[in-house]
Design a protein that fits this description.
Layout (H helix, E strand, L loop, with lengths): L14 H13 L5 H7 L4 H12 L5
Helix pairs in contact: 1-2, 1-3
Amino acid sequence: MGKAPSYPNLRGQKAAYLETQLKAFRSGDRLAPNMSRMARELSDEDIEYIVKFYAGLGTE
């Protein structure tokens, strides 16, 4: 769980997991109103940057 209970903790998630989930939100294979709306506009390069950022934070 993230700092706020209603938000997921993305910090330190595995890169492959994050990439798969963001692409699923973007394509509509996975639905969540907020994430689907935001991910729809992401390019592959955007997803790569986001994945590297969150995966690189570690778990602390």
